[in-house]
Amino acid sequence: MNNDARLLARQYYLRHDRDWLVDVEALAANPRAVVVNLPNLVVLLKPVCIREPMAWLDLRQSPEAADAWYVHLLVGDVALALSLARDLDVLPWLCFQRGARDSRGHCYSWARFVARRATLPTSSI
Predict the structure, then answer these.
(1) Residues 105, 70: Cα–Cα separation, whole Å
(2) CA distances in angstroms from 39 to 8, 18, 22, 63, 123, listed in the order given
(3) For 91-105, what is each residue's pLDDT tens digit?
(4) pTM of the entire structure?
(5) Which of 21, 68, 71, 76 is disulfide-compatible with 93, CB 3.0–4.6 A?
């Protein structure tokens, strides 16, 4: 099994008929978005308003009143992701959608997410 997070992210995009470059270009146009593309960690995220889940997928959008980080994709070393998260602007919530972008959004307290850092394994590929 290949543990390269970049390869796993590409495989996800192929399986779900999505375009990696389109998403990365959209995030590059977003002044507050985050793109990490390392062998052990791939992260695509942006700030969102928790009460507007339909707008989460517009990766170019960066609302002034953002109250959450939307994790568009996270593959690889979750402990490293948590460590890097310390450098982000603190927003009250963390949001994501599971799998092939189901219509339900999932939201967790940012403080609860960051507190998990101590309990995670060093790699979660």
Answers:
(1) 10
(2) 10, 21, 20, 30, 12
(3) 999 998 876 555 678
(4) 0.84
(5) 68
